[in-house]
C-alpha cells in the first residue's frame, strides 16, 4: 500500500490525520532533531517538508534529518521543482487550481515528473486551493495568483469538484502559512460534503479546538506549521493529535 493510502486508512480508523509542516528555514540541525523526535512521540501521522519560498540552502539537509529522526511518512510540500528529493517517501504533486497561472497549474509538473519517476517517490495528486485570509501570504505572492474569496463557498465547491473530476487524489484548502484566519468551518463543511475525495485543511490553525472543529466539519487531514515556531507550543502537539483523532478521543 502506498503512502497516501496508508494515511487514508489511518485517518479512517482514527477519525482524522494530523500532519506537521516543517519549514526548512526555521530550525538549526540540533533543534530540528529534537523537534522531530518530540512531535513523533506524540503520535502525529506524517511530516510535510517544504515551503513557498525557502531562503536558506537547507532543504535537502532538512529532509535527511527529518527522515532519519522520524517514524512517520515524510512528504514533500513543494514550493517549486527545486524541492524534489529521494530522501522523502512521497511528494504532494500540487496543482494550484484556485489560480490561473499556467505554470502553477501544469508547468512545474512537467519538469518535475521525470525526476519524481527516477527518484521513485510517490506523487500525491493534490488540488491546491488558496483562500484569502486577511493579508497577502507568501504562497499568494510567490504563485502570482488570486486567492479564492472566503465568503463564496459555491466557488470553492466548484473548484474542488473539478479537481475530483480531473482525477486528483485530494484537495488542500489553504489559508496560507501564518494566516490571520484559518479556513472557516463552513467552507470545510461545504466542500467536503460536496466531493468524494479527501480534504486537507491548513494555514493559520493555532489551537487543537480549531483543528477538531475542522475535522468535525469534514476535513480528513489537518496541517499545522507556524504554531510550533514558538518552542513552548511543543506541548500542544499531543493535544493536536488527540483533537484530530476524533474517533480515539471523544
Ligand atoms: C501552510 O497549511 C500550512 O502551507 C500550515 O500553515 O504554518 O499557518 O500552520 P501554518
Descriptive account of the structure:
- By secondary structure, the protein is an alpha/beta fold.
- The protein has a single domain, classed as FMN-linked oxidoreductases (TIM Barrel).
- It is 39% helix and 18% strand.
- It contains 10 helices and 8 strands.
- An 8-stranded parallel β-barrel has the order 1-2-3-4-5-6-7-8, surrounded by 7 helices.
- Helix 3 links the parallel strand 2 and strand 3.
- Helix 2 runs parallel beside helix 3 and helix 9 packs parallel to helix 10.
- The protein binds SN-glycerol-1-phosphate.
- SN-glycerol-1-phosphate binds next to strand 8.
CATH topology call: TIM Barrel
Report the span from N to C terminus.
29 Å
Uncertain segments are none
Helix-strand makeup class: alpha/beta
Rounded mean pLDDT score: 95
- Strand content of the residues, in percent? 15-25%
Q: Identify the CATH class.
A: Alpha Beta
Oligomeric form: single chain
Provide the spatial order of strands within the biggest beta sheet.
Answer: 1-2-3-4-5-6-7-8
Q: Count all strands and give the number.
A: 8
For the sheet with most strands, the description reads: 8 strands, parallel, barrel
H and E string = HEHEHEEHHEHHEHEHEH
Q: How many domains make up the coordinates?
A: 1
Architecture (CATH level 2) name: Alpha-Beta Barrel
Radius of gyration: 16 Å
Small-molecule binders:
SN-glycerol-1-phosphate
Structure annotation, total helices = 10
CATH homologous superfamily placement: FMN-linked oxidoreductases
Shape descriptor: globular
